[in-house]
Amino acid sequence: MEPQLIKCLFGWLAVLFTSKFGINLDQSNIRKSSSFNHRHLVKFVTSTRPSACRAQFDTNSLEIGKAKGNYIVEQWVVPEDGLPAINSNIIHEQQRRGILEEEKNCTLSVALMTLDPIQFPTRTSARKILRKGSILISRKGSFNSTDSSFYEVSEDGVESSSSSSDDDDNSSGASNAGNFIKIPAVEAITGRVGDRVFPGDVLSKQIRMANFHYPKEEGPSFDLPVVYEDDHLAIVNKPAGIPVFTHKGGYGDFTVRAALPRVLAEPQEGTAKGLRRPHPAHRIDRPTSGLLICAKTQPALASLADQFKNRKIEKSYVALLNGVPSQYREISKNLKPKESLDLTDEKWHIINFPIEEKEAISKWKATKICHSPFAKDEILTLVEVQPKTGRKHQIRRHMAWVLDCPLVGDRKYDDGSGYSRLFREYGLFLCAEQVKFEHPFYNSEYGRKEWLSRRLKPYSDCIHEYKCEDGYTVMIEASVGVRPAKYDKFLEGTYDDDIILRKNEVIKQMS
Question: Are strands 274-280 and 152-153 parallel, antiparallel or unpaired?
Fold first, then answer.
């Protein structure tokens, strides 16, 4: 191995080792050892939870940002003596390459790590927010203000100001408008990764809180009912045959994602980090119908993704099987033509069958069996399925491969027999009927305050409060209400004339 490669490898190991064990991230100690000014106009909670930051603000108390609909929520003032005294405490020597020899200026990413090491512990986190255009730089001399008139640093390192008021119980979510340096956003520049910061510069963080304008000119070309909606998320009832996202081949506007802005309302002004367009938080197969969760803000999208990853979201599907599972074969023998049997208080069954060499678990139970002259063994079975993992086509594969009862209308996993092909024209009989998950905002620190004012006036039957060890948890429980009519049609034994004609054709082909 060449000496340069070895040197580079050891350098990276030194950086990783020091960043894990040798970096001081105690912001209180950093403030004591330096005189830089850092002002939170709106307080944020440092937490690993994406939904922990405050998401409702009074925009009348905030300075307008550079981008339309953005407002300034945090500011940092670069001290006149530069940043080297602070860098030595939190940044390893190998990371100080972003500082010039005179040590009076540095790259913007290093400055963010120095001024707020808790919010920006790594260069990656700093560069990520820079690429979003959320940091503004106001050069010294471009505004009429002096740092000393706004802040005084006490001996214990805590910032104070004669006009400041940081009351955490302030429901408006913003401090007094006179507590921060008023800088015209037009004169500020949008910070980029390669920009450098000089003593006396003021860094401002802007987030999107207004100007949410979803296109309403034309409605979607298909019906997309809204089951639940607030400023942070929405749940829609996706029809069968409609894709959620655009495929490589292209579906144009014929997708749920394209239709969401036309059926959902914009978040109220003051909702932090709102997305320009609502975004689905998960996928549903194109032939599957049912509930789809969508996010309206970045924190909500991150929180929902985290809940899906940790399997905290409970989903329940209803499916119609072509045939009868072995557990109910004896009961089905006594069914007469056009007769059905409701199964109440039926116990749950577990399927633990790997898919593509990955763990796949499904929980299911039968709720109804009925006689059908067109089905496998002349029996159709209505089942409720709760997938505990999220593998591709998990329910369809488990029903077909493990129970030997493919879903009615499943072109991909049915056995291809003549009778199976009769149902293909009616589409897949699989519906995401129920969903239950934690609300991404009302369970956060600031969201609880808003929930206290709302829970006395419930605005939806889908939102509920449950007691827990920490106090309470706000949950969303939604249901489609009425499943597609084709389910009842098949369960009642009422078929169209065309299926009878096709059955006769199939019998001729089989004979």
Answer: unpaired
Task: State whether the Cα torsion 447-265-42-106 is positive or negative.
Answer: positive
In the numeric block, the tokens 């291809």 are attached to: 416
Give the separation between CA 40 and CA 48, rounded to whole angstroms.
19
Number of CB atoms found within 10 A of residue 365's CB = 15
Report the distance separating Cα 323 and Cα 407, nearest Å. 9
Distance CA 385, CA 237 (A): 18
**Which residues are marked as active site?**
285
CA distance 358 to 428: 25
d(CA 305, CA 297): 12
Question: Could you report the per-residue pLDDT of 23-44, keeping only the tens digit for each?
Answer: 433 333 333 333 334 443 333 3
Give the C-alpha separation, 288 to 266, whole Å. Answer: 27
d(CA 272, CA 55): 5
Contact 54, 43 (CB under 8 A): yes
Two tokens at 111? 């400055």
Over the stretch 9-23, which tens digit does the pLDDT of each residue have? 655 565 454 444 444
pTM: predicted TM-score of the whole model, two decimal places: 0.69
